[in-house]
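Review form for a predicted model. The reviewer records the input and the model, then writes brief findings.
Reviewer: anonymous (R2)
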Amino acid sequence: MAVTIKSQREINLMREAGKILAITHEALAKALKPGISTWEIDRLGEEIIRSYGCVPSFKNYQGYPASICISVNDEVVHGIPSKKRILKEGDIVSLDAGVIYKGYHSDAARTHGVGEISPEATQLIEVTKQCFFEGIKYAKSGNHLNDVSSAIQAYAESFGYGVVRDLVGHGIGNHLHEDPEVPNFARRKKGIRLQPGMTLAIEPMINAGKLDVRWLDDDWTVITKDGSLSAHYENTILITEEEPEILSQA
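Model under review:
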């Protein structure tokens, strides 16, 4: 699949998908509290998405059984919601969600603390979010994709954090995952040259410890190998003639 340049109509649909996704994320953030199950969060997320006439991007995608990926503490991504998984004070929770609006996707992730969290956890969440913003400083027409990736890696590693290599961001549009891959780490090749109309899901996945991860037996949940905390921050962006536009913020 080649990297697609979106038409104005497609961009408008993705912008609307992004607005609905942002609303969903805001509601889920408010719902997070000690004692709630990850299953309840997933149910709420799906209800909100469907209330806007949209479809959750992740539900049954390649067999994923839920609408919201909910990853707790050392879980990096793709945690499966469960009635048995009860959040407690001090946990950090990554919520990854997608919305399909009239055939077009938006994809975004946020990591939140549950109640009072440690200073170390707070810093990890803040640095992971800032990694995204450091990256998109270079998400401009004429720059190379590797400029974005290199900036994300450099910022994370300046704090001694591990940048996950086994998972990357992606292009997005009328498919959830499109070309190109968007690594959070530098590669030898410059990567594609960015052009107006490209839409990308940029998503730093940063570990407090080492970069190594492993998959659990459910074949979905990815955890840090060393048991360290992990955080995730993602938005869908549009490359323009000037600054990139974040499509998945309210």
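Findings: The first strand starts at residue 55 and ends at 56.
Further findings: The chain has four helices and 15 strands.
Recommendation: see findings above.
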